[in-house]
UniProtKB/TrEMBL annotation:
Pfam families linked: Abhydrolase_2
InterPro entries assigned to the protein according to its UniProt record, in alphabetical order: AB_hydrolase_fold, LYPA1-2/EST-like, PLipase/COase/thioEstase
UniProt source species: Stachybotrys elegans
A GO molecular-function annotation: palmitoyl-(protein) hydrolase activity
Protein name from the UniProt record: Phospholipase/carboxylesterase/thioesterase domain-containing protein
PANTHER family xref list: LYSOPHOSPHOLIPASE-RELATED, PHOSPHOLIPASE_CARBOXYLESTERASE SUPERFAMILY (AFU_ORTHOLOGUE AFUA_5G09340)
Residue intervals of the Phospholipase/carboxylesterase/thioesterase domain: 26-149
GO cellular component labels: cytoplasm
Stored SUPFAM superfamilies: alpha/beta-Hydrolases
Family, per entry: Belongs to the AB hydrolase superfamily. AB hydrolase 2 family.
């Protein structure tokens, strides 16, 4: 079916099963792509919908999703329900106090794919995965990269004797997103296929504040990777024009990219 623009009623229905905050372009009818945002450890969805509003990407509707599990009470002092995470578990090193980068993301991945991406954007509204960009900060960035990595092996293997070239092309289109951005979140290896025959993901990836080893791990799994390190060493959201410009250029490039030409160039 031809894709349609989500209404407030559509978002309300989605929010009843998966808490979200949204931002629509003006006018909503100008929507040509979607940005799905994942906050970091201990945060929640409204600030990232605000980030999408501030970036004001033309023609991009934004859906900021709440983490799938609340932080345990012993970690936070605030009684307000604003602290969530994406992991199957919350593993903390007793010596350093550091949180495990890869606690497993099975529950979050299934909910996001089933409820938001497949169930809502694709099946209900008629959009394709290549109309969708992912953005994540910290642990949310890891989830975003993991979803993009896993998508490449989602469709069943196409029988080359089918003789239906259109079907084969459609299945290939469903194996990548328009783009993925991770700020400080490494690729979780628990979400990478162990198949020795796996091909690199066609989703264009943009990495901010990952170290060299973490960036190399993404380059091993994705064909098109850009990695940027800011002058400051800490991990945070962009603070000035120098930090935000490379990311905005990536978004602009992905929005105007000829994905059919990119796909045709692949063997």
């Amino acid at each position: 079916m031809p894709p349609r623009i989500p209404t407030e009623a559509d978002f309300a229905e989605l929010s009843s099963t998966m808490p979200i905050a949204t931002h629509m372009p003006s006018p909503p009818e100008s929507t040509t792509a979607f940005l799905v945002l994942f906050h970091g450890l201990g945060d929640y969805e409204p600030p990232f919908a605000g980030f999408a509003k501030n970036t004001n990407l033309p023609g991009v509707a934004a859906i900021s999703v709440r983490g799938t599990a609340p932080l345990p009470a012993y970690i936070i002092s605030s009684p307000e329900p604003r602290h969530f995470h994406w992991g199957d578990d919350l593993k903390i090193d007793p010596d350093t106090g550091d949180v495990d980068d890869d606690p497993g993301f099975e529950r979050a991945a299934q909910l996001v794919m089933d409820k938001v991406i497949k169930g809502f954007l694709m099946e209900k509204l008629g959009w394709e995965t290549r109309d969708i960009m992912l953005f994540g900060f910290g642990q949310g960035g890891s989830l975003a990269l993991g979803l993009a990595s896993r998508l490449r092996s989602a469709p069943a293997v196409v029988d080359v004797t089918e003789g239906d070239e259109a079907l084969q092309q459609q299945k290939k289109k469903d194996t990548y997103f328009k783009g993925v951005v991770s700020i400080g979140g490494p690729l979780p290896m628990s979400m990478v296929s162990t198949s020795s025959a796996r091909e690199k993901s066609l989703t264009a990836a943009f990495l901010l504040q990952l170290d060299e080893d973490q960036a190399d791990a993404v380059k091993n799994e994705f064909k098109n990777v850009t990695a940027i390190r800011w002058k400051r060493k800490d991990i945070g959201m962009p603070q000035d024009m120098e930090e935000v410009l490379p990311m905005m250029k990536f978004f602009a490039d992905r929005l105007k990219a000829d994905l059919d030409a990119e796909e045709a160039a692949e063997p």
